[in-house]
Design brief:
single chain; alpha+beta; Protein Transport Mog1p, Chain A; eight-stranded mixed beta sheet; four-stranded mixed beta sheet; 3 helices; globular
Length: 236
C-alpha cells in the first residue's frame, strides 16, 4: 500500500512538473520577440531582400538606399535608408559569443554626445532600451538649435546591429512606424570568419544596381538604385 501511494504521488508530481514545464515554455514563447531583426539562420531566404553582404534589407514602397563609404579606404561602412522624409542608418558589428555590446555602447554614445555639448536620454522603446540624443546645431537661418537622433541596438548571435533614426522618425512615433518595420525585417549575415568584437561586418554593393522592388516583386514607381554617401564615423 505504501508503495502504491508513493507511486501515485510520483505520478502526480510528474504531472505537476509537466504542467509547470508547459507553462514555462508558454511563458518563454510569449516573451520571445515576435519579429526581428533576424539572424540569417532564422530567415535564410533572400526573396524580397536587397543583399548588401552583412545586411539584407527588405523591400518597401518608396524606400531609398544610400551606401556610406569611408573616403580614405573606400570601404562601405554603413547603409542609410530614406523613407517619407526620415532616415535610418544601419551598421552591423561582430560581437562575442557569450556577451552583449549594447549596454557598453550606450555609454560610449552618451560620452560622445556629451563631449559635443549635447544631451542623451535613455528610454524604453519598441526595441528595448534606446537613446534619444540632442546635439547643438545651427539652423539654416543661423539660429541655434539641436540635431536629434534616436539610437537603437539589438544584440544577436555573435553580432550587434545599431540603428540611428533621423528626421521626424527620431521624435514622432507615427513617423517612425514605417522605418521601424524596415528595421524589424533586417537580416544580419554574420558569417563564420573570426573577427574581434566591434569590428564592422563587411557591407558591399548589391550584386546589381536594380532599384528596390516593391513587396511581391513589382518595381517601385520611384526607382532608387544604391548610391554612395559621405564618410561617417564608426563606434568603438
Amino acid at each position: 500500500m505504501a508503495f502504491g501511494r508513493l507511486r501515485k504521488n510520483k505520478q502526480e508530481q510528474d504531472t505537476n512538473d509537466d504542467a509547470r514545464s508547459d507553462e514555462e515554455d508558454a511563458g518563454a514563447i510569449a516573451e520571445a520577440p515576435a519579429s526581428g531583426p533576424y539572424d540569417v539562420a532564422d530567415k535564410p531566404s533572400e526573396e524580397g531582400y536587397v543583399d548588401l553582404g552583412a545586411l539584407r534589407i527588405a523591400a518597401a514602397e518608396g524606400l531609398q538606399l544610400r551606401l556610406e563609404v569611408e573616403e580614405k579606404t573606400q570601404r562601405v561602412v554603413a547603409v542609410t535608408l530614406d523613407l517619407n522624409g526620415s532616415s535610418l542608418q544601419l551598421q552591423a558589428f561582430a560581437a562575442p559569443r557569450s556577451d552583449t555590446l549594447w549596454d557598453d555602447i550606450r555609454g560610449q554614445i552618451g560620452k560622445s554626445v556629451g563631449s559635443q555639448g549635447g544631451t542623451v536620454d535613455e528610454l524604453e522603446g519598441v526595441f528595448g532600451t534606446e537613446l534619444l540624443a540632442k546635439v547643438p546645431a545651427q539652423a539654416q537661418d543661423g539660429s541655434k538649435g539641436f540635431r536629434v537622433a534616436r539610437f537603437v541596438g539589438v544584440d544577436g548571435p555573435r553580432w550587434f546591429l545599431r540603428g540611428v533614426f533621423g528626421g521626424p522618425a527620431a521624435m514622432d512615433p507615427a513617423a517612425a512606424g514605417p522605418l521601424e518595420e524596415v528595421f524589424r525585417n533586417v537580416v544580419v549575415v554574420r558569417g563564420e570568419q573570426p573577427l574581434p568584437p566591434r569590428d564592422l561586418l563587411q557591407l558591399r554593393l548589391p550584386r546589381d544596381s536594380s532599384p528596390l522592388p516593391r513587396p511581391g516583386g513589382a518595381t517601385s514607381d520611384r526607382p532608387a538604385p544604391p548610391e554612395r554617401g559621405p564618410e561617417i564615423s564608426t563606434i568603438g
